[in-house]
Amino acid sequence: MDAGPVLWVLLQSLELESVRRGRAKPMSGVMKRMGMIFRAKANKALDRAEDPRETLDYSYQKQLELLQKVRRGVADVATSRKRLELQLNQLQSQSTKLEDQGRKALALGREDLAREALSRRAALQQQVTDLETQHATLQGEEEKLTLAAQRLQAKVDAFRTKKETIKATYTAAQAQTRIGEAFSGISEEMGDVGLAIQRAEDKTAQLQARAGAIDELLASGALDDQSGMHKDDIQAELDRLSGGTDVELELQRMKAELSGGSTSDRQAIEGGQDQGQAQSQQQPQDTPRFDKQ
Fold first, then answer.
1. Whole-model pTM?
2. Same domain, 140 and 27
């Protein structure tokens, strides 16, 4: 468990206790500093975790929800207006019926019935007037909400276009940055690869240096060759001298052939080559002889 929240709760408890006892001033400076540190840490963590594309998508989602609420409001107002229209039609039908009843009552000589019918018709007419006023108000609200919904729809569409453009630009910039980091070797993945290559190169150079040192020690005789294939230092020096002599003689022979030298020159060179080989192969055979007395 992280000690930061625990420390924060502990400091808050100490501050509350100090306030109760009337000694809040000594802790106020510490609390302000701790609060500033925690806010700075939280801001940095949120900055690392924030993805502009996700923020744009969230904002667009909120705008769609708001647009949906506005549309629902328009539908509710339209429903109320339609209900008032139905009530108005019913009241107007009743008013027309009462008017007909009053006419028939007068035709039959029943003035009292005609007066009653006209009284009821007047009351209905007042209700019709009130409903017409409410209908006009609802119709005006509906028109305002419809216009607001259309404007909000245009803003949401424009925001969606801008959002997709910003997301595409951000994605392209992010990909370009990653490619640049990969080429420069400063990315985390390529940094690990570079370290692995460096370790492999260092180990290879170390092994090569060790192999060369062992060869030099074997050639100098400091180390013994346990396989028995290694020559001693005297034989190695003789082989080196004889090899150098053969190379020099072969070089002189090739020069003579290229320059078109005489046959006697080539024979002299070949004779010198044979003599050099005989001298290299000659071993001292003289041994001291003692005559018996």
1. 0.48
2. no
